[in-house]
Specification:
The structure holds 2 protein chains of 2 kinds.
Chain A lengths: L1 H15 L2 H28 L7 E5 L5 H9 L3 E4 L4 H7 L4 E4 L4 H6 L7 E4 L4 H28 L20 H22 L2 H14 L2 H5 L5 H33 L13 H17 L21
Parallel strand pairs in A: 1-2, 1-3
Antiparallel strand pairs in A: 3-4
Helix pairs in contact in A: 1-10, 2-7, 2-10, 7-10, 8-10, 10-11
Chain B lengths: L1 E10 L2 E11 L3 E6 L6 H8 L7 E6 L2 E2 L4 H7 E4 L11 H11 L4 H14 L15 H13 L5 E5 L7 H16 L3 E6 L2 H7 L2 E6 L2 E6 L1 H8 L4 H9 L1 H7 L1
Helix pairs in contact in B: 3-4, 3-5, 8-9
Amino acid sequence: MKQLFAILRKELKDSLRDRRTVFAALLVPVLIPLMLGIGFGTMAHDGKKGRPLIITLSGGTRAPSLVSFLKKEGATVQPAPANFEALLWEGKLDAVVVVPETYGEEFSSTRPAKLRLVADFSRSSAEETILRVTRVIGRYSSQVSAMRLLARGVSPEVAQAIDLQETDLSTQKSRSATLLGIIPMILMTVILIAGVYVAVDSTAGERERGSLEPLLLNPVPRQTLVSGKWLAVVVFNIGGFGLTLASMLVVLNLIPLQNIGMSLGIGAREVVIMLLIALPFALSSVHSNFSWPPSPVPSAKARPI
Amino acid sequence: MIEAHGLRKTFGKITAVDEVSFLARDGEVTGLLGPNGAGKTTSMRLIYGLARPDSGRVLIEGQECTTNPVEVARRLGVVPDTRGLYPRLTCREHLRYFGELQNLSGLELERRIDELIESLGMEQIADRRVQGFSQGERVKVALARALVHGPQNILMDEPSNGLDVMGTRALRALVLRLKEEGKCILFSTHIMQEVTAICDRVIVIGKGRVVASGTTEEIMHMTGQTTLEDAFVDLIGLSEELVGI
């Protein structure tokens, strides 16, 4: 047992000092989640339509019923600062709705009440907000008109010639589900390759260096030798797996997944379950690199020149 | 004590070792002398049990290494021809690793390591990684590694290869000290001066066969030559081969 740990310790120390081995073990755990993060990040950016609508109102106090309608529609209403035009220029605000002083009077005398939408219409990033503000105010307008018609005994449907119905065919959710589905595959791959260099270096490498011969001259049963090296590979595999999992979680937590209508339910319990599932893979992944059992007496041909 | 009885090893059509028998006693330095390709290294490998002879057997203190390899490994210290060090480990880590594989541990092992480092004059390089060591420093590490468990029988395969004058002298002094401690030392070489300087007995090997064995005086007497080199040339029949060219 002591010998087994001596071998394990030596192989780990030796491998951790080998830049190539460490690089191979770190490459996938760091690179893949990064690529995944970029992929999701772009998607989440494209999908920001789901973000809350903030409407900046100048003179909002003159239109209390509008404000309460907007709030009911789920928008956040904020008063416009005095220098809002400058802010619009700088792109710090997307759009401001100005309620003129005449609004209340026009509204109560059932003339079209004027509202001004101030925005930089050439800026593409403001487009979305402008569109949404226009729509929500349009809805308010038709609601008020409908009520006015009702009060005069006319069906509001008379005023609505067309009912445009929208069907959303966006495949964003299905795309991100596919992307998330890659994660288990990546984790499995990492388990299989994280320790490859350790396996190669501690077996074939030992022979190439000519250090196998002195090693085999020690009073150590061959099973112990192979087991020690095997354990070192398993440690690397599990380490690579854990690292990949950790960096994935970090990356996925940084991305606003809710923007693409998804949530990531990975907690401590799920991590433990994943580790348990991964363990047998980590234990068996060495087979491709070790020939088992090793021949009891290596032939003299094994001698390096 | 190392006994070889009728060792024979072939690789395909080539017979590397042919009926080699000899005895290396405790408290003596036995030299295995032969030209390049005579079968010295193969004989060594048969003795330390990493190659299996086609016929014949080897006894280390009466134990057969093919049937009892673990027991034999405890009594054997080997410096193979390929030094086989781990470039990323330090000298001290090499000694510790092999000491642990020999079931030594703790203070006893650390004391033993310090002793070896001191006696081989390796204080300067003890905690440096082996990568970048000179040939002589590598031999020292390989030597210390072979001696870490204090084996009774020590096999060295051309240990002075690549050593400078100082290194060779230090090696000789070490071998003589081990001999005084009553160890059995088997030493393969192709250098005559080394044999005359430290070997008590010589086994001359040529083309896989033992062509002569005995003390240097006995060998010179046998061939009627006045120097070991002439005796060696005589025994190996190199002169005849040269005529053939």
